[in-house]
Hints:
alpha/beta, Amidase signature (AS) enzymes, 3 domains, six-stranded parallel β-sheet, elongated
Amino acid sequence: MASPKKTILVIGATGAQGIAVIAALLAPSADGSPSPYAIRALTRDPSSSRAQALAAKGVECVQGAFDDFTSVAKAFDGVYGAWVNTDGFTVGEQKEIFCGLRIFEIAKQTKSMRHYVWSNLDYALKLGNYDPQYRCDHYDGKGRVAEWMQAQASDVTEDGMSWSVVTSGPYMDMLNHGMFGPLNKRADGTYVFPTPIGKGHVAFGRSSENYDPAPIPYRDLELPEKLKFGYYKSDDFVKPSPANQRAVMEVVDALRAAGHECVEFSVPDPGKPMNLFMQLVSSDGNKTLFAPIGQDPKQLELTTISMGPSMFGWLRSLASWIVSTVLGDTIFGNILYGARTRSVDEYWKATEEAREYARMFNREVWEKHEFDGIIAPVQSLPALPHRSVTLIAAICAATVLYNIVESPVGVVPVIRVDADLDELTPEWLNYKVGSGHGSPILEQILYNKTVWSVYNAKKMAGLPVGVQVVGRKWEDEKVIEMMKVVDGALGRRKFGPGNWRPKRN
């Protein structure tokens, strides 16, 4: 008869480290026999995608938080061991220290507990001889707990609890994104990182009050003769005007004529980036957004942006339901519902959702298609008439997308609006006709003359229309070089100071 498995509680189970620890604990033994461990995960939201993925592997997900000691004590019940990784970014340095001490005490009170592991970071302030320039909150909080633990007994008897401290640092995964890079992949296959890693170790230096970008010199790039571009005429959030779509296709045709490959693709989950943007911006009730205005009166154009957080919760929910269900516009309805004040916990959840969307975009677009760059409309319209922003501010979603995924973008002018070529057709006048449609409400305002019809090819004739040239994160120099490629493929097209003259009757 097989021995019962030993239950290990993992705190921080849905984080990068926790997921890796659980995978290692569940892996078969060296001799091929099944893992001797069963895993219990403490998570704030057992219904989250990461918790559900763990549950699918047989992990027992229990609801709680590391700063909720009642839930911690309950989760410890009957476990053999524990891996504890607290999140100092969420609760702050002081609370993390207290939580670290208290969780250890609760573990000592758990009769079944035999081994306790504290996931640690270096006590940076102490290592820096207490020089305040080396102070790092999320490092020092964990480091102080580890120092305290060393004064506690580690009982290795059959009935006692022994403990270990595992000190790590930046994860290898972080070399794929964030402040560690990589900045780009060079033509010869080598990678450039913004943080020196020496012999495999990240070098940390003194902190600085200089918040300028990392002092990395401009990198000269040699692009391959044939590039692969992704493109779309519509991001499916709002259908761009005929002029904006024509600009994209002018670039695509020119690039193909120059020997480059252009592949059409769809933006994944198109309503999500703008929804996340509104969640993050409005989390503090727009206090940060409008702080520079002070006591000055807000312009009418800011009405829709400022309206959400100031609405009563029931009214916002009702309005969102009407827009989504009755009017059939889930895109606009979700944005309306998302524009509200949030708790710190909800803010961090939205932040993680934004990071997860960026990771998904990288997988489903950049990695799946292996694009060098993306050609996309800049906005839905060539320009906005005065006061129109009051109702259609959300069309900025076309560029907000690349704020969320942290891609560098350049804009290249392509065409000018032509009163005849860029006139509206039934495909724009009726949002049920054709493809590429998004928010029905926004499109009615943009194109339906009985509502407003902000877009007017005749009035906008002569206005320049450009495209976004988008690159992967940290590939700023490559974007500039690709802009040159686009500009060269298009050739001379009467752009520049003094080139345009209005038509005279």
